[in-house]
Design a protein that fits this description.
This protein is of the alpha/beta class. It is about 45% helix and about 20% strand. It has helices spanning about 45-50, 60-65, 70-75, 75-80, 95-100, 125-135, 155-170, 190-205, 220-230, 250-255, 265-270, 305-310, 310-320, 325-350, 355-365, 370-380, and strands spanning about 1-5, 15-20, 25, 30, 55-60, 85-90, 105, 110-115, 120-125, 140, 180-185, 210, 240, 260-265, 275-280, 280-285. It has an eight-stranded parallel β-sheet with strand order 4-14-13-12-11-10-6-5. Strands 1-2-3 form a three-stranded antiparallel β-sheet. The longest helix is centred in the last third of the chain and has 28 residues, at about 325-350. Bound molecules: zinc ion.
Amino acid sequence: MFELLKSDAESKARLGRLTTARGVIDTPVFMPVGTQGSVKALDPRELQEMGTQIILGNTYHLYIRPGLDIIREAGGLHRFINWDLPILTDSGGFQVFSLAKIRKIKAHGVEFRSHVDGTLLFLGPKEAMEIQRLLGSDVAMVFDDCPPHTSTAKEVRAAVERTIRWAKECREQPRAEGQAVFGIVQGGNHAELREECARALVAVQFDGYAIGGVSVGEPEAEMMKAVEHTVPFLPQNQPRYAMGLGTPAQLVELVARGVDMFDCVLPTRVARNGTAFTTRGTISIKAGLVKADWRPIEEGCECFACRNFSRAYLRHLLNVGEILGLRMLSVHNSYLFLKLMSDIRAHIAAGTFTQFRREFVANYVPSQKVLATRGQTAVRGADE
Ligand SMILES: [Zn+2]
């Protein structure tokens, strides 16, 4: 299912190929996030034109709205949203632990109230796998316990034990035809818990492994450590996925640490704030200081927005609340993340990744505001 094509000589970066029921994915890969059955503001044609290989869908949100009956009647999630390429579905664990209003953790799952209308619901390993089977995703994720980064060591240990137990239950559940299932390693910033969780999950034998419990509001150094403490215990010949990360510079650094798959809401979320990613950091288009700035968002970018519109025009659209402005920033930001991954793949193939990494990270100025936005997701439970 996963073929390791090349390992970088000077870092842990890998070039790979993941074969799923609906197509082959070149890794390292970025997966645009279609939380509620749509990558916000982008349509399937645009996504495919900009090189999207796989998108993400979300069990928790789709289960609440529109509900499984509708998706079943449509013939599965791919048909419902008219997307032929692979879909990875998150299990809902992250949302239950960060979004849902009231919850009671039980032996076989979590009782919670919907963040939409307060309905009492239950989601556990069995339910999460059943929903993902009906959605018909190509990669399903196990239902895990994702504790906040402020948890005590004792709480993290309990979450790890529960995660392992639930992972085993998930592994036993029926799956859709050709559906792969990935385990999720928890353990916070505790090296020994990360190792313990990774080893236990590898023993259960999944098709791939995710590093969870990152992007939950922790500082960047801690996030990098969590990844470093997990990767050595994952099999070489299977894909590794860092959940919910990150900024462009973080993606480069995570690839260098041996991660193959990423998903993040940042490209579309910051677009909605009128902010654009560039290879040198973020810039505010909406609050652009120069009203008559006739340059594209980023010189040399070949996305639809940069080929067709100036910063001045986009600034105007954003300031008068025209939807096109928001859409074009979403196009540019998503394209940038996808292009970055394709550049990374080319550099690993050519043996020039380390030089690329050094230059990219040196030129990229991280915005504290953007980093903070990433952290707030889990802490405050935003809608993604
Ligand atoms: Zn562009």
